[in-house]
User: Fold Trichome birefringence-like N-terminal domain-containing protein from Clitoria ternatea.
Amino acid sequence: MKRELTYALSFLVLLPSSILFFSFVYPLDRQFLSRFALLASHIGEECDHSIGRWVWDETYPQQLYDENCPFLDPGFRCRQNGRRDEGYRKWRWQPYGCDIPRFNASDLLERGRNGRIVFAGDSVGRNQWESFLCMLAKGVSNTSEIYEVNGNPITKHKGYLAMRFQEYNMTVEYYRTPFLCIIGRPPLNSSNQVRRTIKLDQLHWYSTRWVGADVLIFNSGHWWNSDKTIKSSTYFQEGGKVNMTMNVKEAFRRSLETWKSWALHNLDPRRSFVFFRGFSSVHYWNGTWNGGGLCDVETEPENDPKRIETEPFHNIFISRVVKQMQYGSWKVHFLNITYLSVLRKDGHPSKYREPGTPPGAPEDCSHWCLPGVPDTWNELLYAQLLSEKFGFNNSFPESG
Ligand SMILES: *[C@@H]1O[C@H](CO)[C@@H](O)[C@H](O)[C@H]1NC(C)=O
Ligand SMILES: *[C@@H]1O[C@H](CO)[C@@H](O)[C@H](O)[C@H]1NC(C)=O
Ligand SMILES: *[C@@H]1O[C@H](CO)[C@@H](O)[C@H](O)[C@H]1NC(C)=O
Ligand SMILES: *[C@@H]1O[C@H](CO)[C@@H](O)[C@H](O)[C@H]1NC(C)=O
Ligand SMILES: *[C@@H]1O[C@H](CO)[C@@H](O)[C@H](O)[C@H]1NC(C)=O
Ligand SMILES: *[C@@H]1O[C@H](CO)[C@@H](O)[C@H](O)[C@H]1NC(C)=O
Ligand SMILES: *[C@@H]1O[C@H](CO)[C@@H](O)[C@H](O)[C@H]1NC(C)=O
Ligand SMILES: *[C@@H]1O[C@H](CO)[C@@H](O)[C@H](O)[C@H]1NC(C)=O
Assistant:
């Protein structure tokens, strides 16, 4: 009896590690993997929402919002920009072994009353923020009571936007910080080759405004490649010194250490729910994002999981740092949306991007049409908040 228990326990311990092991060694054998995940999801109480499949659901987007939501960037309104196929809006994410709780805007508004929700990261983070605003706005009868605190319009040109939900005394904020760290002029004595540096040991100065938020959703990754850094004369700096040989991976890893140390020193573990979203996949065929890559031929999700690429290095670093922060009363999570997003090669604006885009301009196969894939990310966010009883004890920490 005792021995059996030991076997069962070691199986439980081995299972996650073998899944990890297999995903490195045999990244392509997804069917095998998903069977394991299904098994795993039944063992623990918590279900793994990151693995599943897209199912056709005629009723799906209507329950959330539509393209007339006033908070949508013109670049994400694909139908209004001429996209004719409508299928991309009708797929619902179905995790193996459980269902995602139905998104309830009024419930989330109530839980977030008097609070602040902060999104920080790159433009895909803004994509998710806009989706979140529209989902939440469904719980408000009069959308004129939702406004930007400085009266700014929602455009991609603003670095900071805060939408106030008047009735709930709540704000949902967006901060553009593609590298999370400070990017600026190099030190005076550096070589002419260096036009800008990313200061890996200093979090963006916007971070002073993140303190005290109830929910924080970070993302980073798309700018961490050599095209957008070293090849455009942007090098990495630490302690006033530019390091001319540090590569992008190592720099990204160090930026996450800076982020972790900032969070542990500046956030209140009892109050804040912290998320770091995983990498959002791009789908460029026959070219790169700036070299004629395309995705407008895609009208359906990928249905062959074997064709899915391996885990991006960003996720490996992010999930590692997040795990190091999961102690005491900290509520820090890796929001793993990479697999579900990589299947959605049909979900991008492609050539139906913002009005006024010249005909020969590159297609947008990195952001997502809205309503669309980021709605699912927000559903998973909501599910996690629910499972941790967000808003019941944390709204008034002083009096409670
Ligand atoms: C993210 O989820 C996918 C699908 O479940 C999984 O294969 C992958 O290992 C996860 N990534 C991390 C870093 O946990
Ligand atoms: C949504 O939440 C509100 C407030 O908590 C509740 O009254 C309502 O029944 C919920 N709606 C659904 C469809 O679950
Ligand atoms: C609004 O929320 C803030 C905390 O974010 C709180 O200090 C203030 O008292 C609240 N105002 C009202 C009218 O409840
Ligand atoms: C909606 O809110 C705005 C701003 O508070 C107000 O001027 C308007 O009268 C409201 N409309 C309705 C139908 O209540
Ligand atoms: C530039 O100045 C910093 C700080 O004074 C010093 O540590 C560094 O070695 C100098 N770098 C070069 C290339 O001279
Ligand atoms: C630059 O960073 C690399 C790690 O990527 C390190 O090995 C090297 O020592 C650093 N160079 C200097 C001059 O600090
Ligand atoms: C990519 O190019 C090849 C060869 O020119 C062509 O056969 C294929 O249809 C193209 N794929 C897409 C998605 O445009
Ligand atoms: C909320 O606070 C009450 C009283 O302090 C406590 O009994 C309960 O377990 C707390 N709930 C959560 C989810 O922390």
